[in-house]
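Work Package 4 report. The design task specified in the project plan requires that, given a folded chain encoded as structure tokens, an amino acid be chosen for each position. We show below one input record used in the internal validation round.
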């Protein structure tokens, strides 16, 4: 068996702008497991603000290949235990490695991926459509017109642009989610003031308005906010989520933070026990990465899986968008 990693640079349909960051292309990594004619693939799509060296990633994949060859595991459970023994330079790559192995097992056995890891099946989800930061109602409408049709739109906002965005957000006639990407730091009072006049009934929730480490500020914000508050960057690879019920109403779970398929499922299950809502999120990544998330997608309250729609040259066609739904192309 041969493991490979390849850097792929995706051109975006339009500039992707969030608080503190703007990109026009996205560099991701495709991990491939080959054995004869059978292959499996996974994808690592880091945050636009993060990076990893190709040397570190190549070292990690070489370690996976050497350990895999030495231990000759055949089941996902054995493979996951094998990966526990590897000290990854870039821990975020593990989910993509697991995805490639699961994809390979499916190609060789025809067993559905959700059965391979013991989850429940789900073949389509209603997803939010994310819209980058804009600076006027005219620009906001132009962005909506250029994005896929959806049931719910997620708008990127910032403390610098919110005043110019409010007019459009107030008039928008569909349910919305707002994503602050930590723009307000620890100033929870300024954040609440900046959204005064926006009807809380039309906002499903607001994601990560404050700095990820501002725990006390989040506690105070939760107590006074007319909006439901969800955290994204604040949640990393935690399994024990008891403290999160004090700072937010819901969490966004992503593969690069949780690191493993089973940890994502555990996070979702534990969050529900605490009364927290859950979002399955993604990065800007191709349909390879998005399709791998369906293996763990059953049971979430919301889905934010539109990352592949931002890419101009995605030729993989593992999933497709249909008026707000993301649907598995191969239905496995």
């Amino acid at each position: 068996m041969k493991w490979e990693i390849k850097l792929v640079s995706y051109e975006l349909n339009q500039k992707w702008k969030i608080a503190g960051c703007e990109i026009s292309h996205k560099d991701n990594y495709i991990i491939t497991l080959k054995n004869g004619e059978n292959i499996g693939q996974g994808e690592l799509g880091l945050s636009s603000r993060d990076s990893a060296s190709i040397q570190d990633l190549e070292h990690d994949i070489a370690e996976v290949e050497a350990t895999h060859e030495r231990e000759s595991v055949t089941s996902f459970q054995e493979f996951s235990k094998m990966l526990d023994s590897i000290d990854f330079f870039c821990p975020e790559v593990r989910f993509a490695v697991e995805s490639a192995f699961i994809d390979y097992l499916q190609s060789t056995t025809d067993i559905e991926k959700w059965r391979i890891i013991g989850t429940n099946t789900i073949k389509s989800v209603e997803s939010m459509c994310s819209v980058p930061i804009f600076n006027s109602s005219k620009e906001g409408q132009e962005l909506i017109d250029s994005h896929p049709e959806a049931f719910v739109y997620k708008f990127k906002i910032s403390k610098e642009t919110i005043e110019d965005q409010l007019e459009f957000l107030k008039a928008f006639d569909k349910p919305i989610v707002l994503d602050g990407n930590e723009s307000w730091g620890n100033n929870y009072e300024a954040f609440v003031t900046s959204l005064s006049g926006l009807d809380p009934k039309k906002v499903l929730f607001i994601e990560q308005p404050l700095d990820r480490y501002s725990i006390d500020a989040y506690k105070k914000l939760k107590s006074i906010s007319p909006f439901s508050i969800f955290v994204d960057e604040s949640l990393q690879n935690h399994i024990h989520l008891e403290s999160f019920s004090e700072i937010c109403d819901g969490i966004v779970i992503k593969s690069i933070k949780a690191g493993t398929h089973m940890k994502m499922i555990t996070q979702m299950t534990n969050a529900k026990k605490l009364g927290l809502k859950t979002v399955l999120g993604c990065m800007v990544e191709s349909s390879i990465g998005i399709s791998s998330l369906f293996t763990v997608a059953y049971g979430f309250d919301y889905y934010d899986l539109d990352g592949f729609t931002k890419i101009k040259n995605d030729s993989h066609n593992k999933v497709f968008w249909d008026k707000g739904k993301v649907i598995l192309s191969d239905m496995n």
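The chain has two domains: 2-117, 124-328. Validation will be extended to a larger panel in the next phase.
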